[in-house]
Amino acid sequence: MFEQNQEVFNLLFEAISEGVVVVDIKQNIVIANTSAEEMFGYDKNELNGEHLNVLIPNNYHSGHGHHFKGFMKDREKRRMGLGRDVNGLKKNGTIFPIEAGLNPFEVAGKFYVMAIVIDITERKNYTENLEQIVKERTKQLEEALNKEKELNELKTKFLSLVSHEFKTPLSGILTSAILLEKYKLTEHQERRDKHIKTITDKVQYLNNILSDFLSLEKLETGKVNYSFKTFNLSKIVNEVVYNANMLLKEGQKINYPENIEGVSMQFDEKIMELALSNLVHNAIKYSPENSIIDIVIEQDKTTTIFKVKDEGIGIPKNEQKNIFNRYFRAENATLTQGTGIGLNIVKNHIENLGGTIDFESEENKGSIFTITLPNSPIK
């Protein structure tokens, strides 16, 4: 076959950097160049006379035979495996991706096929890495878009909240201020006191909302500076209960925790008061008249536990998963004033200091909120 111009042929055959494998119509390898031998891990001339299947993974043998027969029938140049993965098999059993172009030709009345083979391992790795990078980047963009969408939703909720929560008390303040002008006589003092109290309460409510927003901003920007010291629990509880007593509805009662005199802990005192106040105020706000609010405190050598139990409206089961989300308010609480950020703020502070906050609740039966704190918090 290659007797004429043998030197020229050998020179050209070996000069090609791609692997070249020539097979006859029975798929026996007639000759392979050095590049092909090195690519598949064979020694010089070791492939000559071998069946082409030695270069093809076992699971492709039957399919390849069918494609080869079809190719020999058509005898047209084609790119092997177009639109599908094609793999080669090294002598050591390694399977690797290849690209092969098939070229039929005839010499002395005999038909042969020349396969030009390229190892595309690096190209495929690059493509796969690129695809992975694209996937990761796409995921990052999707997360960024979702975050922006969530932020826009939060802004909408915030504006709606501000509009409602500020407008209502401001209207009450304006009304009471106008009515105060009408009560100028001494015998009108009781009515004046009533409207003065309304103004005072609503201003205090607005002040609390602004404090919550400022706390939220500090948490968002990481500007919170915690201050730790040892203090008696009775000091905090007394302050919380004293302020809460002014908010009690008709017949409501707060049960003071037992056996806490002389009990102390090391923590941020202001944060502890903020957290306990939030839970007690919520218990009062969402509980009916003539109900009981229990404050229970337990402590061992490492942990202090605060529990606030009420007999209020409770939290619907299907909404409990969202109770600590910012601006969230359960459906059965929408008629009661509130911003929906108090519990979110408390949770962030408590978790920042190594504690946890959890709850149990049943609609129309009440809730128990539990704060668990290390006696010496993580600083």
UniProtKB/TrEMBL annotation:
Keywords: Coiled coil, Kinase, Phosphoprotein, Transferase, Two-component regulatory system. This is histidine kinase. It is an enzyme of class 2 (transferase). Its EC number is 2.7.13.3. Residues 161-377 form the Histidine kinase domain. The keyword Transferase applies. GO terms for molecular function: phosphorelay sensor kinase activity. It comes from the Bacteria. It comes from Urechidicola croceus. It holds the Pfam family HisKA. It catalyses: ATP + protein L-histidine = ADP + protein N-phospho-L-histidine. PANTHER family: SENSOR HISTIDINE KINASE RCSC, TWO-COMPONENT HISTIDINE KINASE. Residues 5-59 form the PAS domain. Residues 123-157 form a coiled coil. InterPro entries: HATPase_C_sf, HATPase_dom, His_kinase_dom, HisK_dim/P_dom, HisK_dim/P_sf, PAS, PAS-like_dom_sf, Sensor_HK_Regulatory. The keyword Iron-sulfur does not apply.
